[in-house]
Design brief:
Two copies of one chain form a homodimer. The first copy, chain A, is mostly helical. Chain A has two domains: 73 residues, Arc Repressor Mutant, subunit A (Orthogonal Bundle), CATH 1.10.10.10; 36 residues, no CATH class. Chain A is built from six helices and three strands, in the order αβααββααα. Chain A has a three-stranded antiparallel beta sheet. In chain A, strand 2 and strand 3 form a beta hairpin. The N and C termini of chain A lie far apart (38 Å). Chains A and B meet through helix 5 and helix 6 of A and helix 5 and helix 6 of B. Chain A binds a DNA duplex through helix 3 and helix 6.
DNA sequence: TTGGTTGTACTGCTTGATCTAATAATACAT
DNA sequence: ATGTATTATTAGATCAAGCAGTACAACCAA
């Protein structure tokens, strides 16, 4: 499993990690049950911070691409291949898009829409 | 018509203007057809910029609380009282709230929700 | 028992980007 | 003189991204 980080890339490091691991799952390079490198080791190999790798792992586990088993290590999820295709970002975009359109049609300015959004995001901190 | 600006207030100046004028309409201090002070004069009296007052007037006209008649001046709208009760902010908040809840329930982090939002707001510039 | 490894969690910090609010200075037609 | 519009700029807040350090429970091998 070859992972490389391009600091000049527009994409943040943790996003590059997520993309590459998902890609490896899709291509079949990573199959269900395989062990992934420990957070600290991968961070060390790439010369980046452990938190950055942990952040990527956390998202990947939320998306059920990997499974963390504590001291035992982290492994590729049984349904990794199917779950690697699901793009939460796309789903979020479409939902958010319809909402913004609705508010704009109501005559609200972008400034007011932003105010409403930030207010909601703060509410349940 | 007494208007005062509190710079220490959390609310932006233009929002304070909007709130106070709407309030004056609701209480009956401002009735349909009454003339409002010119933008430049009100700005001068309050010691703030003309653009700030113009911004408030623009929103008030959009909400049909006031009517701008060019060189003739600006006046209280015929339906000002009814339109001052409508709270666009409340409507926007409830719509935005359900959307954010939906996305959070889908497992998205606040960070990702923010990314989706800013992406949409940029899309149709 | 001792020491090391695992994922996880937390706080604090720096950097850069972005947006808002407000100001400033014009300009225009009526 | 009126509302309207434009462009540019400043200051402040907010957030993402990443780094740094620390800590913990669970476990394993020596």
């Amino acid at each position: 499993m070859e992972i490389s980080i391009d600091t000049s890339n527009e994409l943040p490091m943790f996003a590059q990690l997520i993309a590459q691991i998902k890609q490896a799952v899709i291509t079949g390079e990573l199959t269900a049950g395989l062990a992934l490198p420990p957070i600290r080791q991968l961070a060390s190999d790439l010369g980046i911070n452990q938190n950055t790798v942990a952040k990527a792992y956390k998202v990947l586990e939320r998306d059920k691409v990997i499974v963390a088993k504590g001291y035992k290590g982290t492994f590729v999820h049984d349904d990794a291949k199917a779950n690697s295709v699901i793009d939460w970002g796309e789903k979020a975009l479409s939902i958010m898009d319809s909402t913004v359109l609705k508010l704009r049609d109501a005559g609200l300015t972008d400034s007011e829409i932003r105010l409403a959004f930030t207010a909601i995001m703060k509410k349940n901190h």
